Amino acid sequence: MKNAALTAKILARRAKLATAPLSQTGSSENDFVRFLFKNSEKKFILTFVNGLESKSLPYYLTLWRGIGTLDKINRQAMQRIIGTEIDLQNILWVYRLKRFYSIFDDEIYGFLIPIRYRLSGEAFAKMVACKDIPSLQAEISATIYKNIFEDFSKPEQRLANAVKMRYRTESRRSHIALLCGYLYEKVLLLQASSPAP
What we know:
Layout: H1 2-19, H2 31-34, H3 39-51, H4 57-67, H5 72-100, H6 105-108, H7 121-129, H8 133-140, H9 155-170, H10 175-193
Helix pairs in contact: 1-10, 3-4, 3-10, 4-5, 5-9, 7-8, 9-10
């Protein structure tokens, strides 16, 4: 019942949020966090929003630690979402580093998020050790993420779509996932409508 009431409030505020500039969402007293019941939920959402556009290493590390402050249902949902996104970001960075830069395999680890969700250390090490893109794709095809990076045409869009679908799936169970998923999609739309530099 508590989640149903919160979900109804979230959906009722979507129209208002859609017209608010994203820069206003960083304030701790904004409308979209006022109705959250727990301070830990408010803190998690604010961490999520404050780093949503930058997606930096400190953002992911802080967000991952913040997941532990949520209740069980929200924690599990957000672990699945953020864990998947981290794995996919790391795969994408391995691809970028191998394709566009000449660096040693050991140096690649310095560019990655030091969190593994569904990729074993062995599977990830095999990806890092690949000598070319076809062998990297072969290693990816042996993982749970094989369908996301079947090829590397528009890899950022493939990653965004996979994360968006994960949010939609998890939002059926978690009000935090529902809210974060909405904000994630809003940022994607803003980025798509912004002119390229």
